[in-house]
C-alpha cells in the first residue's frame, strides 16, 4: 500500500479534529462581545478573560496530556479529549441559566483541557506521518479545515447571539430592572441549544474514533528524524531550538488571537455597529485561508518552511504598523490582513521545533502546546495597554512579537542542532 493511501483515512480523521479545534477556538471572537452584554461586564479586560480561560488550559494541561498519550496512546487520548470538551460544553447550560460569567469561564477551561489532549496528539501525528520537510504542507491542509470551521462558527453563532445586539443594548438602557433581567436571561439562553448540539456531536465523534482504524504512532515513528538527535539527552529542555520554538509559538498564538478575537471589539470602538463588526473575524480567517492555500502549493516545492516563516513574520511587522498608522476601516483591514501573515506560522514553527527530537517528540509537542498560553496573556496585555494608549495604538505590541518570530525563522530553529537541514 502506498503512503498516500495508507495515510488518507488518518488525514481525514485528523482533518475533522482540526475542524473541531477551529470551531471552538474561533467561537471566542463572538463570545467576547456576547458575554460582555449578557453578563453585563464592565470592561473589555473582563471580556477578554474568555480567551484567557480557554488558552491557559493548554499550559496547565499540556504536560499531563503527554503523559495520558503515553499511557493510553494517541487514539484513546483523542477520544478522551472529545469527551472532556463535551462536558465543558454542557456546563454552558447552567452557566446560561444562572448568567454566571465565572461558570462560563470554567466551561471554557474544560473545553480547552479537552483541546489540549487533542492538540498534543494531532499536531505531532500530522507532522510525523510523512517527511518532516513537507509537514508544513500537511498542517496547511489541516489549517483549511480549521479556518473554514472558524468562519462557519462566527457566521452561525454570530447570527444566533449578535445579530440584534445593537438593538438589545439600546433597549437595555431604557428598561426597568425587572424587564432588563428578563431580556438578559433571554440573551444568555441563546447558547444552550448550540452548545448542547455540539456536546452530542463531540461524543458521537469520540465513539467514531474509537471504532476507527486510526493507526498508532509508535516510538520508532516518532524517531523519523533521529539522525539529527543528539545522543545523551535526558530532558526536552536540552534542545535549544525547541525552547526557542515554544517562545515563537507563544508570541504567534498571542498575535493570532489578538487579530481574530479583538477585532470585533476594536471595530466597535471605532464606531462600527456590532451587526457589522461581527463579520470582521471572518475577514481575518479568510486571509488565513488564502495563506494556507499558498502554503499547500508552494511548500516544500518552491520554498522551505523557514523561508515561508520569514515572509510571514515580515508581513506581520508591516501590517501591524499599518494598523497603527491608519484609521477607520483601513486600520481594521490591516488587522484582518494579519490573518495572511499568521497563516503559515503554526505550519512552519511546529515542525521546525520538533525536528530531530526522536523519542522526545511527545515531550516537545507538550512544551509547544503549553506555549498556546500566548493566546491567554497577550490579549490581556493589549487590553491594559489600550486603556492608556487607545485601542488602535495598543496594536504596536505586535511588532516585537513578529520580530522575534523572524529571528526564529532565520536562526533560532537551527540553534543546538548538529546538522542544519533547513
UniProtKB/TrEMBL annotation:
Location(s) in or outside the cell: Cell inner membrane
Official protein name in the record: Glucose/galactose transporter
MF-aspect GO terms: D-glucose transmembrane transporter activity; galactose transmembrane transporter activity
Gene Ontology CC annotations of this record: plasma membrane
Residue intervals of the Major facilitator superfamily (MFS) profile domain: 10-422
Biological processes, Gene Ontology terms: D-glucose transmembrane transport
Keyword Nucleotide-binding part of the UniProt annotation: no
PROSITE patterns to which the protein is assigned, alphabetical: MFS (PS50850)
Entries under SUPFAM superfamilies matching the protein: MFS general substrate transporter (SSF103473)
Pfam family, one: MFS_1
Organism per entry: Ohtaekwangia koreensis
Record's function text: Intake of glucose and galactose.
Entry keyword annotation includes Chloroplast: no
Membrane topology category: Multi-pass membrane protein
InterPro entries linked to this entry: Glc/Gal_transptr_bac, MFS, MFS_dom, MFS_trans_sf, MFS_TsgA-like
Family: Belongs to the major facilitator superfamily. FHS transporter (TC 2.A.1.7) family.
Keyword tags: Cell membrane, Membrane, Transmembrane, Transmembrane helix
Spans through the membrane: 7-27, 47-65, 77-95, 101-118, 139-162, 192-214, 235-259, 279-300, 307-326, 332-354, 366-382, 394-410
Amino acid at each position: 500500500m502506498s503512503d498516500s493511501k495508507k495515510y488518507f483515512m488518518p488525514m481525514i480523521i485528523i482533518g475533522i479534529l482540526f475542524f473541531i479545534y477551529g470551531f471552538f477556538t474561533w467561537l471566542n471572537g463572538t463570545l467576547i462581545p456576547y458575554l460582555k452584554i449578557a453578563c453585563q461586564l464592565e470592561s473589555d479586560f473582563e471580556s477578554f478573560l474568555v480567551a484567557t480561560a480557554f488558552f491557559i488550559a493548554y499550559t496547565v494541561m499540556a504536560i499531563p496530556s503527554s503523559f495520558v498519550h503515553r499511557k493510553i496512546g494517541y487514539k484513546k487520548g483523542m477520544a478522551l479529549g472529545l469527551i472532556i470538551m463535551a462536558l465543558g460544553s454542557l456546563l454552558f447550560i447552567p452557566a446560561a441559566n444562572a448568567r454566571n460569567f465565572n461558570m462560563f469561564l470554567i466551561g471554557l477551561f474544560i473545553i480547552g483541557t479537552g483541546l489540549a489532549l487533542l492538540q498534543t496528539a494531532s499536531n505531532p501525528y500530522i507532522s510525523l506521518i510523512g517527511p518532516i520537510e513537507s509537514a508544513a504542507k500537511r498542517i496547511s491542509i489541516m489549517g483549511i479545515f480549521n479556518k473554514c470551521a472558524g468562519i462557519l462558527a462566527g457566521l452561525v453563532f454570530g447570527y444566533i447571539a449578535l445579530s440584534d445586539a445593537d438593538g438589545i443594548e439600546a433597549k437595555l438602557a431604557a428598561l426597568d430592572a425587572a424587564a432588563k433581567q428578563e431580556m438578559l436571561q433571554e440573551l444568555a439562553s441563546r447558547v444552550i441549544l448550540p452548545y448542547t448540539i455540539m456536546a452530542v456531536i463531540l461524543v458521537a465523534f469520540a465513539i467514531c474514533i474509537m471504532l476507527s482504524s486510526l493507526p498508532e504512532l509508535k516510538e520508532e515513528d516518532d524517531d523519523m528524524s533521529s539522525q539529527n538527535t543528539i545522543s545523551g539527552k535526558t530532558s526536552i529542555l536540552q534542545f535549544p531550538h525547541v525552547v526557542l520554538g515554544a517562545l515563537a509559538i507563544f508570541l504567534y498564538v498571542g498575535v493570532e488571537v489578538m487579530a481574530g478575537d479583538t477585532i470585533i471589539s476594536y471595530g466597535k470602538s471605532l464606531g462600527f455597529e456590532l451587526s457589522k463588526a461581527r463579520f470582521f473575524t471572518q475577514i481575518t480567517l479568510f486571509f488565513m485561508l488564502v495563506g494556507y492555500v499558498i502554503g499547500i502549493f508552494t511548500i516544500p516545492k518552491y520554498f522551505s518552511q523557514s523561508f515561508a516563516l520569514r515572509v510571514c513574520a515580515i508581513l506581520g511587522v508591516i501590517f501591524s504598523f499599518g494598523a497603527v498608522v491608519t484609521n477607520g476601516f483601513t486600520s481594521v483591514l490591516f488587522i484582518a490582513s494579519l490573518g495572511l501573515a499568521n497563516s503559515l506560522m503554526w505550519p512552519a514553527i511546529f515542525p521546525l521545533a520538533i525536528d530531530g527530537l526522536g523519542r522526545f517528540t511527545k515531550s516537545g509537542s507538550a512544551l509547544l502546546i503549553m506555549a498556546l498560553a500566548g493566546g491567554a496573556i497577550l490579549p490581556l496585555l493589549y487590553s491594559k495597554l489600550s486603556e492608556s494608549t487607545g485601542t488602535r495604538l495598543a496594536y504596536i505590541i505586535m511588532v516585537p512579537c513578529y520580530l522575534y518570530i523572524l529571528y526564529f525563522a532565520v536562526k533560532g530553529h537551527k540553534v543546538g542542532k548538529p546538522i542544519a537541514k533547513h
